[in-house]
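Figure S7 source data.
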Amino acid sequence: MINALRGMKDLTFEESQRFVYIITTAIDIAKKYGYSYIETPILEETALFRRSVGESSDIVGKEMYQFEDKGGNDVCMRPEGTAGIVRAFISAKLDRQPQKYKFYYYGPMFRYERPQKGRLREFHQFGCESFGEASVYEDFTIITMIKDIFDALGIACSLKINSLGCTECMPPYRDDLVHFLTDIEDGLCDDCVRRIGTNPIRTLDCKNEACQALLQGSPKLIENLCESCDSDFGKLTELLNQAGIDYEVDTNLVRGLDYYSKTAFEFVSSEIGAQSAIAGGGRYDKLVEYLDGRPTPAVGFAIGIERIMELVKMPESKREGIYLGAMIPEAINSLFPVAQRKRREQKVTVEYDAKKLKAHLKGADKAGARIAAIIGEDEFSNGTIWIKDLESKEEKTLPVELF
Ligand code: HAM
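Tokens for the predicted histidyl-adenosine monophosphate complex:
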């Protein structure tokens, strides 16, 4: 027997219903916020992720599904959605248009990580990317949209925010941090020591307890922001306070992707174990330019669908639609014109075998139908159909054309 690959999952009946419910709920809300659908390829040139997610990130360094295709091109299964959407945005020359663009997307992402609960090698994200809006009002609006999605899905979570500064305040902070890290280097784990030279900011979210203890005294970017970043961060917290959205300022929240500037955030749940981040995002004002487009501010997020599938509260499923059946083989053909007509408005299940009434009612119950509509011997001979509403228990017989 051939099994699915490690860290990759099939979504069968019950799970797939939850998946669709989450995606449709998120789409409905994203549309209300003015987002429209974008679809980009799963396979992209590896260089796209090297340049955007960043050479020194774990995703690019260790986790890419990267290979040479039959034409000798260096390609990669997307580990996340933002880079491909920025590439598509530039390809379509939307960076040259004066208007703002807002896109939502969903689909599979691939990261060759060590699988564990909540961490897969193929997982799904629902995400949104907003282009052309530099105002921090947009960061706030995006956070309210995610909150709306989680509220609609009945998911309790908490919000962590941070500012990662900009090209003005990040470089001097980075230098300060490197000085600090070099002084405590002997006590740091191997990963952190390596990161001093490659990506010092990532040491801040190292999970090693000894590193965390030493890093307590590290300089904090939030205390060293330039005027513009400081004022934007202040405005964001003011808006969140005003909206009654609880948050925690987490100065160690640095995100695992290199393209962020200014606002960075994560939604976490305490109910799903170690892999607690259920959504993450932030501003990436330099990425469009960095991928050779015209300077365009941007902000976005992605939700991890598998993680919220563990948390979602599905609405009670209601009986819906019609179950059609016949009690004699000759009557089966006459079910199909009725099914065709009724399917224009609602879900219809047709039973292909002639059965006794009791068996049909059982079948209708199993199919979750609201109405059982059965043609027996008498009904067949006089052109009628017997109908039972399985909720109100009402029964009646009607001419077939009036049903
Ligand atoms: P990210 O934080 O890498 O951000 O991923 C977003 C979410 O995807 C995570 O919070 C988590 O719920 C889910 N996720 C990530 N890796 C896995 C995994 N191996 N298994 C299961 N779920 C996972 C991004 O990908 C950015 N592109 C978000 C963004 C959009 N920023 C701006 N725009």
